[in-house]
Description:
By secondary structure, the chain is α+β, with helices and mostly antiparallel strands. Helix content is 47%, strand content 11%. The chain contains 17 helices and 13 strands. The chain has helices at 2-61, 67-82, 91-95, 153-168, 174-177, 185-192, 194-197, 205-215, 218-226, 268-274, 288-308, 343-350, 384-396, 399-402, 409-423, 439-443, 445-464; strands at 100-109, 112-119, 122-128, 236-240, 243-247, 314-316, 324-326, 332-334, 340-342, 361-362, 365-366, 369-370, 375-376. The strands form five sheets. The chain has a five-stranded antiparallel beta sheet with strand order 1-2-3-5-4, sandwiched between helices. The chain has a two-stranded antiparallel ribbon with strand order 6-9. The protein has a two-stranded antiparallel ribbon with strand order 7-8. Helix 4 packs parallel to helix 8 (205-215). The longest helix is centred in the first third of the chain and has 60 residues, at 2-61. It is globular, with a radius of gyration of 33 Å.
Amino acid sequence: MLPGGLISGGGGRGGGGGGLCLLRWLGLRLWSRRGTLVFALLWFGSWLFLNGLVLVHRSILSDYCTDDKSKRILQRLCLEFGEGSVTGDMCEDLCVLGLVEYKRCLYYENGKKVIEARWRGNPVILKSKLENFSSYEPLGILDYQDTAEDLSPLDVVFYATMEVRNSLGLAEDDDDEEGGGGGSNSSLARLWGKKLKNRDKSYSRAELASLWSLLQQEEYTFLRVLQDLSTHVAKVLGSCGHFYAVEYLSAGHAWDQNIFSLEDVAVSGLQGQGQAGAGSGARGRWTSREMVHRIALSFLDMVWHFDNDFTHKLHLCDIKPENFAIRKDLTVVAIDVDMAFFEPKMRDILDQNCSSDDDCNFFDCSSRCNLNKRRCSPRRRNSNLQVICEKIFRPWFSPTLLGAKAGLPLQVELQRAVQECSETEGGEDDKEDDGGGRGEADKGGGVYQRLLNILNRLLQEGAASGEGGAAWEVKGHVHTALNF
Length: 484
């Protein structure tokens, strides 16, 4: 029995060992199948990820700002110039004489190209709304004429006038309806194209095609029309085909406590004027705080100018530091006016269906919803000044940045005025205006004047303490009567 028992016990252990082997074998098969499934899932996931990455790469980097692509675009432009398809006062310097030096690509999205360059040693910005010249609509009249010689300079002025009206959202009868003084196309010709009508010879096809591509770019039209009327817009310096050059100005940044880079601003000339007769020992530069006050005064000057000095009020619907710059004399300049609209076009934009006031916001421009009509009011309820106070002045004059000076009486008064300004709506819905959107200018005039007085007193206080210059001289405005 003992041996049998041993055998029996051994058989039991052997049977148990076989069972364990079987379990191990089954576990290995299960693990193998599970591992295969996990591997397959990992492989499939990796395949999806890599393909998604390629698609994202193509979609994003196809619009990525690269030097190689930017240079190819300019080379294509020069090829079109060599073929006689385009022209402009910058083309020869760019394509023949090599006087335009490419520096870097600044922005590229949906075809809009912004390039930094140097033209005859001066920094400039090259811009075009679309990458290719062929992407712009051609001047239709040229399709029905063998040559462009049949178009007189006055014909060109007429077509340019119509295109500018369309681009800026101004109808032919705006002058009569809005009380603009009965202006006519001749005023646009005088402001926009003195050279157009003073030529003795007709325009070539290349000149007309290039002009037409430029007129289809709203920002170019704005800058070109307003540059002789306002110091607060960037200057157009030249063009080649569908690209135009504007003055190079360093844009503001929200992360900079002063918004603008004040270290690069040379104001020694302004300092000399401000302290003329103030005694010897005048410094060659303002302090950062003094420059901020002067820049704030220039913002106020710009607001007054855009509100009052044109036949129609000019609305800024995208107010942020990156869309403004300063010149060396501390003049504030609007450098991105893609979201700037005269009153008629502003009303068309705001006049939409709505269910609440939230539906009546167009970036920084807003109106109220008439719940009975389910329609947004076409009149803007806030103002350029209110948004500038909210987005520019409040960060500038906050107690955090002012530090120990935050408790000084004038600084406290300034903070209160900025707070009131940022909370005071334009009130065009609550008050009659003259048809050009002027109701808010009257209502907001009180806080505007307070800000102007406080900032000037701060400058005078600095001058009295020997830390600054004289008060800001508010520029006199001549009503330009921009009648299109």
